[in-house]
Design goal:
143 residues; alpha+beta; two-stranded antiparallel sheet; 10 strands; 22% helix; globular
Length: 143
Amino acid sequence: MSTDVEFDFSMSQEESIPNIIAAAEAAGWRFEDGENLAYVTDTDLFEWFAVTKNVREEVVRELESVRVQGHACGFIMTHREGDAGCIFIVADSGKSLLVTPNKNMVPRQGMERFADGEWYLGKLLPMFTGLPLVSYSHSQELT
């Protein structure tokens, strides 16, 4: 499949990394990328780290420290259904969340060139029942 898919969520107030992760986990996402935790904290969001799951608390603290400083940071989460993975980028001090599917992309039935945006949206929106979501957008581009 050759598509670029993005979901952009905007919140009315800053949210902490622990709150965002907890909300995603309550909606069926796992804070992991296979056997590891994958995350990024550098200012250009380029240098990703993969560490063992036993350092989860330290990774969350590091991500939160970056967010509090006003920098963007990111991490990978995997949904319990279908093992579909997404990159979660937190920006604007926690008021913006950009989600991009990146692993085991779920195709639209009968149109395999497209990701099933509704499937992802259905798995992402429940995490905002406890977060102050004010708007979201979804885009998909064939490449």
